[in-house]
Each structure stands twice: as structure tokens, then as C-alpha cells.
Specification:
Distance between the termini: 36 Å
Strand content: 5-15%
Number of strands: 3
Largest sheet: 3 strands, parallel
Structural class: alpha/beta
């Protein structure tokens, strides 16, 4: 028997504030696909707004903190290409 797949969902700051239905839909879809969903505590922001405003060192610190929250995750689902880029680079 194959163990269940687990994914951590990165709740983006703007998505959480303005489009919570996107996160809810992602969770429903993942559950329908048999994926267990985790939400690492302490999520705030990926740092992209800071980066885009020229605060690169501060943005890097925020991004590193966000990455650390997801280090143990088997897979991470990010509903924003921009946020995914920020934590990847």
C-alpha cells in the first residue's frame, strides 16, 4: 500500500486577504485527489512586496523565514507564481 501524499499549502498574504476562496478551493481539490494538506504555522508573507519596493535585504530575510517553515514538507503548493518565484530564488 502506498503511503498517502502530503502537501503543505503556502497561504499567500494577498490571497488570504482578498481571495480566500482560492485557498479553500485548493484544499478541496487536493482532498479530492487524496492529498493530505498541511498549513505550517507562522506563515505571513514571502517577502515579494519588500523586494519590489527595493528592500532586498529585508525581503531575503522574510523569504528565508518562509522557506524554513516548509523545509519538512514533501511537496509545497503555492497559488501564486510570483510568491513561488520569490521563495525559490
Amino acid at each position: 500500500m502506498t503511503p498517502p501524499v502530503r502537501a503543505a499549502v503556502m497561504v499567500t498574504c494577498l490571497g488570504d486577504m482578498f481571495y480566500p476562496e482560492v485557498g479553500e478551493t485548493i484544499v478541496r481539490l487536493l482532498h479530492r485527489l487524496g492529498v493530505a494538506v498541511d498549513f505550517p504555522a507562522g506563515q505571513t508573507c514571502c517577502g515579494l512586496p519588500l523586494f519590489n519596493s527595493g528592500y532586498h535585504a529585508d525581503a531575503a530575510a522574510v523569504a528565508r523565514r518562509t522557506v524554513a517553515l516548509f523545509e519538512a514538507a514533501e511537496a509545497v503548493v503555492v497559488p501564486s507564481g510570483s510568491c513561488a518565484w520569490m521563495v525559490k530564488h
